[in-house]
Design brief:
Elements lengths: L1 H17 L10 H17 L8 H5 L1 E7 L9 E10 L12 E4 L16 E5 L20 E8 L4 E5 L9 E10 L10 E4 L15 E5 L19 E6 L1
Parallel strand pairs: 4-9
Antiparallel strand pairs: 1-5, 2-3, 2-4, 2-5, 6-10, 7-8, 7-9, 7-10
Bound molecules: 2-acetamido-2-deoxy-beta-D-glucopyranose (NAG) (3 copies).
One 2-acetamido-2-deoxy-beta-D-glucopyranose binds next to loops.
């Protein structure tokens, strides 16, 4: 009887090996990796033929371009506006910068002593002007625009570089900006290196004030950083 069973097993293997419709085989790990490789090859070589689904067409990322009324080429502008923030001597209130639309919908008048929202002014003149930055913006108000880059999945602001890492595209680059160290603190933002003025008024109205930021050696390692150098920045998408 054991011999008989063995014979059946042999027949089963032979049928399996030579039959045309056998599916009862096991894939070895190397078979599987061959299949994966072929799938990957077909996927990448035929990707161009593959129509975009409506959801993929809609994918995009948004970012604020500080200091400009327009968006970089091939991006959509969501809106343009004016940079707003907290008053430079206030202790409470927000520390972030806002890109406020030029066509606001205003609430009703309210009297209280809560924090206010102020426009931002460039405090950049010959005493602290980063080289390459426009020289005529002192006390001018600061435009901004919200831009949308279609077909990208990620957006990243890098302080300390003007170019993006491999595989990323620079949307714009410029200088790291924040409040003066003796004023109320505010976020760092990346100001476009070709910043412009909101309008032609240059009265010293104060509000939220923008100053370039320098690198300070110590806990910040030098090299690679360098003491008292203007900090560059860029906004990257991928
Ligand atoms: C402003 O007040 C009026 C009158 O009370 C009210 O009808 C309106 O909805 C208010 N507007 C807003 C934006 O709250
Ligand atoms: C330049 O800006 C600084 C900082 O706001 C200010 O203290 C200084 O008076 C300005 N200098 C000129 C020449 O406007
Ligand atoms: C500022 O004034 C100049 C000269 O009068 C004018 O050409 C320009 O359009 C004005 N800019 C703005 C933003 O109003």
């Amino acid at each position: 009887m054991p011999t008989y069973g063995f014979a059946i097993a042999i027949v089963a293997i032979v049928v399996c090996a030579y039959g045309h419709d056998c599916t009862k085989y096991n894939l070895t790990p190397s078979d599987q990796s061959l299949i994966d490789m072929m799938k990957h090859y077909l996927h990448t070589s035929r990707k161009a033929d593959c129509p975009l689904t409506p959801i993929q067409q809609d994918i995009g990322v948004t970012y604020v371009r500080w200091g400009k009324k327009t968006c970089p080429g091939n991006t959509d502008i969501v809106y343009s506006g004016q940079t707003g923030g907290n008053y430079y001597t206030n202790n409470g209130g927000g520390s972030n910068w806002l890109c406020l639309p030029n066509d606001p919908e205003n609430g009703n008048v309210s009297s209280n002593s809560n924090d206010g929202l102020y426009g931002a002014e460039y405090q950049i003149n010959s005493s602290n002007n980063p080289s390459g930055f426009p020289t005529n913006l002192y006390n001018k108000e600061v435009p901004c625009s919200v831009c949308r880059r279609k077909g990208k999945f990620s957006v990243l602001v890098i302080a300390g570089k003007k170019s993006c890492y491999k595989g990323w595209k620079s949307e714009y680059s410029g200088f790291l900006i924040s409040e003066y160290k003796g004023h109320t603190n505010a976020d760092f933002i990346c100001m476009d290196g070709e910043a412009e003025q909101l309008d032609n008024r240059s009265s010293n109205e104060e509000g939220a004030l923008l100053y370039p930021v320098r690198a300070k050696c110590g806990s910040l390692r030098c090299p690679p950083y360098k003491d008292n150098t203007v900090v560059l920045c860029t906004v990257c998408t991928k």
